[in-house]
From TrEMBL:
Repeat listed as a keyword: yes
Organism annotation: Deinococcus aetherius
Stated name of the protein: Ankyrin repeat protein
Record-linked SMART domains: ANK
Keywords tagged on the record: ANK repeat, Repeat
Length: 184
């Protein structure tokens, strides 16, 4: 009779309760924005790209919740600003959705790609446009965001702004398009 090899247990299920509790505490530090708690752990080898069960990295958690100091510490320790969660979202997409200009600037300075897009092809500029985030849209455009980029449905940022009834970003993007074609 042959032995059947057991399936490899998932990495999480192979951890003891104490380690799982520690990992949850670390994720909570990022979610709460406790830069002072994260820094020494990172200094001692905590992986800066540690993720929760939904693929949200420490940087995603810190940035989505608006914690600049924690996000800065994570970036300084090598956190990847392009690491996507299970839904294909990056920290910059989260900052654009929330309208967090300071976080978007930090992420761009930390290496985030202004053109990275989610699974649906929506860029940060498209999200900013959809939710009428004019300051974030200005920042993204200043960093080279493409006004002509299209998502999976073929929509541009201006199309998204119009569809979502975001009058300020629609006017802002119309003005930019007029400038780029010389019709301003």
């Amino acid at each position: 009779m042959q032995d059947h090899p057991e399936k490899n247990p998932s990495p999480v299920s192979a951890l003891d309760p104490e380690t799982l509790s520690f990992l949850q505490d670390v994720l909570d530090l990022a979610r709460r924005g406790d830069a002072g708690g994260l820094a020494p752990l990172l200094d001692h080898g905590l992986p800066p790209n540690l993720c929760n069960g939904r693929g949200d990295s420490l940087l995603m958690l810190a940035s989505y919740h608006g914690h600049l100091d924690a996000a800065r510490v994570l970036l300084e320790h090598g956190a990847d600003p392009e690491l996507r969660n299970d839904q294909g979202q990056t920290p910059l997409l989260g900052a654009a959705f929330r309208g967090d200009v300071a976080m978007a600037e930090l992420l761009l300075q930390g290496g985030a790609d202004v053109e990275s897009a989610g699974q649906d092809g929506r860029t940060a500029l498209m999200l900013a446009a959809m939710f009428n985030r004019t300051e974030v849209a200005d920042l993204l455009l200043a960093h080279g965001a493409d006004l002509h980029a299209r998502d999976a449905r073929g929509m541009t940022a201006l199309d998204a702004a119009r569809l979502m009834g975001a009058p300020d970003t629609a006017a802002q993007l119309e003005g930019r398009l007029g400038e780029s074609t010389g019709n301003a």
